[in-house]
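Human: I would love a firmer grasp of how sequence relates to backbone shape in proteins. Take your time, and here it is.
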Amino acid sequence: MARHFKPVGTHAIHVLARLAAKRAVQDELRAQGVRVTLIRPAEIAERAVRYLEQHPELYEQALERAKTTQKGPSIGPFFLT
């Protein structure tokens, strides 16, 4: 049986990378004893952008995550089955 390749969209990869950067920023803040709920979401987003610029490997990890975690029916051209 032939396996059909469905490409993962770049938008999906960017979203996954930004989510990973946001989680990393929140973890750093928690490690410093800061309550993340008291930080404006815009500030966390700005910090996540800077974190992502400093850690471009998050894009590669996001691509691998998208390839390995997608299970079930395809929702569009952005996901693997």
The chain has a mean pLDDT of 83.
